[in-house]
Amino acid sequence: MDYHAFYRRSIEQPEDFWREQAQSLDWYQFPNTILSRDESGYYQWFADGTLNLSYLCIDKQLADGYGDQLAVIYDSPVTSTKEYITYRQLHDEVARLAAGLQGLGLQAGDTAIIYMPMIPQAIYAMLACARIGVIHSVVFGGFAPHELAIRIDDCRPKVILTASNGIEIERIIPYKPYVDQAITEAAHQPEHVVIYDRTQGAPMPHQDRDVDYQTLVDAADHAAPVPLAATHPLYILYTSGTTGTPKGIVRDSGGHAVALKFSMKYVYGVEEGDTYWAASDVGWVVGHSYIVYGPLLNRNTTILFEGKPIKTPDASTFWRVISEHQVKVMFTAPTAIRAIKKEAPQGLLLRQFDLSCLKYQFLAGERCDVATLQWLEEQLKVPVIDHWWQTESGWPMLANMVGVELQKVKPGSATLPVCGFDIQILQENGVQAAADEEGYVAVKLPLPPGTLMNLWGNPQRFRDGYLKRFPGYYFSGDGGYRDTDGYIFITGRVDDIINVAGHRLSTAEMEEVVASHPAVAECAVFGIYCELKGQKPLGLVVLKAGEDIEPAQLEKEIVQDIRNTIGAVASFREVRVVKRLPKTRSGKILRKLLRQIANKEEYKVPSTIDDVEIIEEIETVMRT
Ligand code: COA
Ligand code: AMP
């Protein structure tokens, strides 16, 4: 199929294009209205259609006679466990948990938080919520109790589903005490906490609100899927913004299902029955779209991998999983590949395995450096495809749509716009940039199905953050340029969000924690280059007058504060003390300048800084 013609049709005739795609799903009520506007005037898809994601991911496959096909392969090198779960077993687990949740009083429109490690129960919990219209919010297990508390207060869950613990290589992460701590900190109090006990010796303090997961499931019947409006929120997923408060991305049901099904076939080139692996975590958008909903909607076998690319037990794990489970398409973050390459640069570990099953390797989550992409291409000898998207978009916006027509790979570029995304590079004033000219990456409205509907409880932030900067466009927050062949290159965030090992983090949130240290007068946190993780955060602090705390002690305390408040996942390890921070006349810290100095990039000292000693001190501190 000709990519350009297919893409053009999606932009020029969006309603016809997506009506046709919607026909690939089994709706209770097929939509008459394809594209319309909600009460605030923002676009919505398939408004009068009804469907259920849990039905489409499970019951539909049973009805079509695929109950014995594997739905999920749980491969957990950290527990030396493998579990093979058929669509029939998935149905039993999910329908019973859904009934159990109904028994606890949950119904369509309620919210539930899922704070779980990479175990099958996390998938069951998501699908059980979807089955009965409960809006789930999965919180990544690497976040500390305070982050969980913020999310509890924002989405006000009736129930939290959790597990006794996670496992980081060999370290037990005790989730249950974290949940209790978060509930103590939060103003909102959930009615119940449902806990899956992994019986691995983690501390399990008991509270009156606690319910044992297995007891609940064992006592329950099967709940039927509830027909829901296409615009019914499927989930809220919190992601970092430019302020200290995370934003709750709200995803619809109908548009999301259509987009994911479409993407499995046309972006990833996966057919029904194939095995697909996204090596991410259910706590991130990649996990939502491509560990759970996308592959199951497409009747694929999805891999749930509880481990790391290295150390569980070594850098051959990814290749073992691909070969053993016959993975056709794999998706991971460039960081993971850099970690593997560092351990085994000659790729010898890879050659122990027959990887002939693998057709495409996709990368996303952060900028992919050319060296990593080329190394992987040489090792795997299959197309390695960098593609670009975000929590907000829910599915790829730029990609090499291999299911349509494989395009030439240009390392450094995420290739061409995916159907439905009219991507434009804009100058500061909103005028389109010329070829090869760097600008702001924006998408002309309407966005295609499956992208964010709103921000939970904060429509104003949604409009201000995404729609105001360039009227008529969605602004992605990324910078980039388009070359003369139309290929788009993403150059990085133009705001204060950083990307550490494929994890999106807010420097503003970290600054709040650093600034709350009693010795700190003011501070700046920004991202500096990291060979492994792409970026890592660094804090510059100015001490309060008269403070004489040792810098090493200060660093230790602040690092611990960040771990306790945000979580170890922030990878915050470095603090430097300076006398002053460079600022604009209005007092705004010049973070971009700090970043440029730290990364040894070219920089221009703004005319507002008349004291060069400020810059000299920072240069000196950065060299140490
Ligand atoms: N629960 C609890 N803690 C977690 C966690 C989780 N789910 N995930 C990460 N952490 C902790 C780690 O244990 C580590 O703690 P430490 O500082 O005490 O060692 C810290 O958070 C940082 O973790 P991470 O960024 O994973 O770094 P690492 O050095 O342990 O591993 C990589 C480096 C490259 C192997 C790892 O970052 C990786 O696999 N990256 C790929 C990420 C990815 O797939 N992202 C997908 C987004 S699309
Ligand atoms: P998240 O919402 O956590 O998925 O992070 C999205 C952000 O990660 C984007 O806004 C980009 O800054 C970055 N990102 C994701 N994929 C890519 C990619 N392929 N190339 C460059 N940056 C990327």
Task: Describe the overall structure.
There is one protein chain. The protein has two domains: 3-307 and 387-480, ANL, N-terminal domain (Rossmann fold, 3-Layer(aba) Sandwich), CATH 3.40.50.12780; 501-623, ANL, C-terminal domain (GMP Synthetase, Chain A, domain 3), CATH 3.30.300. The protein is 32% helix and 24% strand. The chain contains 18 helices and 32 strands. The longest helix is centred in the first third of the chain and has 17 residues, at 87-103. The model has no long low-confidence stretch (mean pLDDT 96). Coenzyme A binds at residues 141-142, 166, 168, 173, 279-280, 284, 286, 308-310, 332-333, 335-336, 339, 365, 501-502, 532, 568-569, 571.
Offer a few descriptive terms.
binds coenzyme A, alpha/beta, five-stranded parallel β-sheet, Rossmann fold, globular, 18 helices, seven-stranded mixed β-sheet, 2 domains, 32 strands, 24% strand, GMP Synthetase, Chain A, domain 3, 624 residues
- The name of the CATH superfamily of the largest domain reads ANL, N-terminal domain
CA-CA gap between termini: 56 Å
Which strands sit side by side, in order, in the main sheet? Answer: 5-4-17-16-18-19-20
Question: Roughly how much helix do the residues carry, as a percent range?
Answer: 25-40%
